[in-house]
Amino acid sequence: MANLFPIITIRSSKPGPEGLIIAGVHGDEYEPILAVRQLIVELRDKIGKGSLTLVPVVNKGAFLAGARLGLDGLDLARTCPGKKGGSITEKVAHEISKLIRKADFLIDMHTGGNLFEISPLAGYMLHPNSEVLETQRGMAEAFNLPIIWGTSPLLEGRTLSVARDENVPAIYTEYLGGGFHPKGTEDLVAGCKNVLAYFGMLPFVRRDSKVTLKIEDNQPGSGHLQEMYPAPEEGIFEAAVALGQLVRQNELLGYICDYSNEKKIEVFARQEGKVFLIRAVPMTKKGDALAGILSAGNEIL
């Protein structure tokens, strides 16, 4: 089968880990795509040991459509491990899952795309294997974004689900969204290099830590961003809080108004914590995520 997505591998002459860095699982998340492209240029002949496989655009159809979903309407981040003979997204999921199973570690980079703004974070599943979990914690710390977030290992359909089942240490990143942010590309490139240094594949460069919050939440469903604060009705969403804001339980997060502005539904915080996700566009359908809060009770820093 011809490659469904571009694959670039940089090999060292010395044995070592086989790393995998991917972007463009969702087609409207551009900073990670540019970051991987930049890594391809910067890291040629620079890997000190092992090999590094880079996939700048996993979901080409979604990228060319400027959309989160594939051309068949499926979300690649809910379709892994896919099907060899399935629809286009299922085929892509099958091929990227094959790469993940062969890797010694995975970095999967995301943003909030067109619909959300998400505070920069590095996340991982709370893996039942303690060795894998500690490696993931080390990778997330090395990536050096402000938030580190460990969540339920029970979510399915994702690249991290495939990595979990194969005991491949894996992290994902989120970085803003709701528009293009050039600094995001810079920070993601630096983060990937930090993780490669963590595995001894690049020289270590001392940097001041940007980590300000560590959260681990093992509750079922934690980490599923699209299920946080679902809209009770369709309409126009007006946020009353900002990204990064600390909120109290029962504090107003925003309103959903009908199209004539005659009906207004208030949305309140269910817990105390930090707003790390906010809807970036007014349009909302019933069930769409409006906001996300990292609970103060789960902080480990």
UniProtKB/TrEMBL annotation:
Annotated Succinylglutamate desuccinylase/Aspartoacylase catalytic domain residues: 16-149
A molecular function GO annotation: hydrolase activity, acting on ester bonds
Coiled coil: none
Superkingdom of the source species: Bacteria
Cofactor(s) needed by this chain: Zn(2+)
Keyword S-adenosyl-L-methionine found: no
Keyword NAD in annotation: no
Keywords associated with the record: Hydrolase, Metal-binding, Zinc
Protein name: Succinylglutamate desuccinylase/Aspartoacylase catalytic domain-containing protein
